[in-house]
Automatic annotation (TrEMBL):
One of its GO terms (molecular function) is dihydroorotase activity. Residues 11-261 form the Amidohydrolase-related domain. The modification N6-carboxylysine is found at residue 98. It comes from Amaricoccus solimangrovi. This is Dihydroorotase. The lineage of its organism: Bacteria, Pseudomonadati, Pseudomonadota, Alphaproteobacteria, Rhodobacterales. Homodimer.
Length: 345
């Protein structure tokens, strides 16, 4: 048996939802000390007041004994008030502001249609050093779904970076080599988060032999050469890349239906799968940087003081059971290959 001990990781992109789903999925993030919590609720978390109330609901739903700090975000709309954002940042309530292009993903209808309209907010954020987290996809129906990230970089992100180079931007859930190369080409103020499932799956897993709704998420899983670029970035040790699981629970009946919701629920086994990816690459020594150190450095926080241990067993683990929540069962990420790693209690 092999073991590896590392600084406790953080999840820099997590969906916790609300109500019964929140209560059900919160314990699944127990491997992580902190998480950036996404604001795409219905209605979205737009103001500092919304974020304070949502934070209180998360803390109230936290099980006894689970040490977990939710790092709050605000959902950027075309009527967001720069002063409200600045006050929320100054008080320490929010860690980032989230840009959803309107219509790009789950609950993004109140997002941004015209980036010109949010420039006053972005300028204020650049002044105070508050990061912008970005779902980087265009929604132009003419653009092929597999190209939407690359076209977003070209049409929106590159011009934004030229116009406002002081703005700190996290390109979240990077899924393409184009995204990786864009981050590598930036000298400063740009970083990228990577999910676990995009490191493991390519679009054949999604589509060959039958459609797999539990692998459907946005940005959509890409072809193998992109996956390989993501793995190289994650395991390469570059501090601009770090873990954001984008664990996105939807009840089973919202995934297994005629028009399935986008999102993969990876919170319960993200760290075991990540250990396996890094082991396969011969890069276990770089797992701690990716999962526990690069993210805090980018978000200007100290790494966690405690540690976790991952253990490898010869025999593979049983496939994960669905998580039962008050909002229905949620299927846990299972790429269908043997998993040998677990987090030691
Ligand atoms: N990733 C997804 O496919 N879905 C996320 C939204 C998002 O992060 O884009 C969700 O909220 O379900
Ligand atoms: Zn997204
Ligand atoms: Zn997400």
């Amino acid at each position: 048996m092999t073991e590896i001990t590392l600084t406790r990781p953080d999840d820099w992109h997590l969906h916790l939802r609300d109500g019964a789903m929140l209560a059900g999925v919160l314990p699944a993030s127990r491997d992580f000390a902190r998480a950036i919590v996404m604001p795409n609720l219905v209605p979205p978390v737009v103001t500092a007041k919304d974020a304070a109330a949502y934070r209180a609901r998360i803390l109230a739903a936290l099980p006894e004994g689970q040490a977990f700090e939710p790092l709050m975000t605000l959902y950027l709309t075309e009527s967001t008030d720069p002063a409200d954002v600045a006050a929320a940042a100054a008080s320490g309530l929010v860690t980032a502001v989230k840009l959803y292009p309107a219509g790009a993903t789950t609950n993004s209808a109140s997002g941004v249609r015209d980036i010109g309209k949010v420039m006053p907010v972005l300028e204020r954020m650049a002044e105070i050093g508050l990061p912008l987290c970005v779902h980087g996809e265009v929604t132009d129906p003419e653009i092929d779904i597999f190209d939407r990230e690359a076209v977003f970089i070209e049409r929106v992100l590159a011009p934004l970076r030229e116009r406002l180079p002081e703005l700190r931007v996290t390109l979240e859930h990077v899924t393409t080599k184009d995204g990786i190369d864009f981050i590598l080409g930036a000298e400063r103020n740009l970083a990228g988060s990577l999910t676990v499932h995009h490191l493991i799956l390519n679009r054949n897993h999604l589509l060959v032999g039958g459609m797999r709704p539990h692998f459907y998420c946005l940005p959509i899983i890409k072809r193998e050469r992109h996956r390989a670029a993501l793995v190289a970035a994650a395991t390469g040790g570059d501090p601009r890349f770090f873990l954001g699981t984008d664990s996105a629970p939807h009840a089973k009946d919202r995934k297994e239906c005629d028009c399935c919701a986008a999102g993969v629920f990876t919170a319960p086994n993200a760290m075991p799968w990540l250990a396996q990816v890094f082991e396969t690459e011969g890069a276990l020594d770089r797992l701690e940087g990716f999962a526990s150190l690069h993210g805090p450095a980018w978000y200007r926080r100290a790494p966690n003081a405690d540690r976790i241990t991952l253990a490898r067993s010869e025999d593979p683990l049983p496939a994960p059971a669905a998580l039962e929540t008050g909002a229905g069962p949620v299927i846990v990420f299972d790429p269908g290959i043997p998993l040998h790693w677990r987090v030691r209690a």
